[in-house]
Amino acid sequence: MSDWQDNSDGKASGQPKDKPSPEETANSGVNVLEQQEISDPAHIWRQVQGKLRAHLGDRVHMSWTGQLVLQSADENQVILGAPSKFIAGRIDGKYGDLVRKLWAQSDQRYVEIGNPPSMGSGTEMKPARQKQALGHDLNRPSRTGVPPQNPRGQFGGSPTPGFTTPTPIQNHERFTFDNFVVGIPNELAFAAARRVANSTDSQYNPIVIYGPHGMGKTHLLHAVKAEVAKKDPARRVRLISSEDFVASFVQSVRSQGRSEIDAFKAGLRDVDLLIIDDAHFIADKPGSQEELMHTLISLVDSGKQILLASDRHPHAINKASDRLKSYLCGGLLCDIGAADYELRRRILDRLIERRRTSGHPTLAMPQDARDHLAARINATPRDLEGAFNQVVARLEFLGKPLTLDSIQEALAHSRYTGHTRPTVDKIQRATAKQFGISMEEMLSKRRSRAIARPRQVAMYVCKMLTTRSLPDIGRRFGGRDHTTVIHAVKRIDNLRAEDTGLNANIESLLETLKGT
Question: Chain-centre distance of CA 243, in angstroms?
Fold first, then answer.
């Protein structure tokens, strides 16, 4: 029995107890308050969210379970709300058991995951509508064996507010312009994002920032939103992920109600600045891309600014219509290329500075150790941050200083023990050697098959093994356009299935490059 429950004071049950002193009474009150806080649903939900983030990772938690909000609770059950029935169903199917297991570690109430239908602010759900929305039989016993008495159980006696789309829990406060490390590979994207945040001039519209995952695109989008909120609060900004766009669009169509569709459109178009992350995901879906197209046209015609992020050039989005590709390319395209050595060193300096200000003021890494880490982790900034965290944590737990030798030892036990990613130049030289042509021929304007085919293979392998963008790859092959690279990638991809000899040559080339 815990201290706060022990009121026997060593005496047998039923025997009179001496009157407690004022000090004992005060301590008892404190313990009761502490226990009330521990059993409070909001307190438990915060703990469960932290465990979900640790168990699933930030990205999965932000995309799914991080969208749940504590809707209501009573003595027998808790209701967690999601933005739509579709999202509620997906979360319940994939992560519902985990959510209930983590909740059961602190509380025995049954957890229901659903989608409250009321989206208007300040309105209260009616019981009949709630039953339909949450898919919960109000007369069915809960898993505790007791029928729920008040499925809309209020906190503090106040009525349940209308459900609004929750903001993902992931902390984006550090995603500011000041925290973004700028270098040659990302300077255009950074400048364009600053321009959008500080000016209402929509001369370049839409603006598309594109590049592989982990290059800082999402950082820039949230930095724009944060900057606008700080300097021009009256400016209406909407930042939405592609997943939310598609899910909301599908929900509005399935509702078969004009008001739902109109509300969806108004939510996107009644803004001064629309920001969409991972726009390629929308463009890959024929139904949703049509609505995206209409939204873009409406906002541009109204003089509103649009900022999009994509993991590829618009022309490389295979399922996107020619019209949408043309419209996206009609604005400003900002490529974020792979981080070069100098940029990686600056990113490491920023990571060390951040670690010092967040509780490790004595953290020190010698310059030769920094140089080695920047040279060894030839990957995305996100990968570099992951390697840095792994090295620092391992040495911190083992009580070792950060030196060149200790970092080399730490990397030997990580996934970065493999060889570094091959460069475009290395791929060109290896391909030229494999097919028996010179580097001059590889970069020349000659179009004979004996020269053009190895060149296409080299472009194809560059796309496979490097993080270089299509325009960057094209520039490194004698100043060619990105469309030439797209054609080469598609052509070689098709030929590998038809020409066994060519496929064997490419397999041999890939093995050579991965082993260097």
Answer: 11
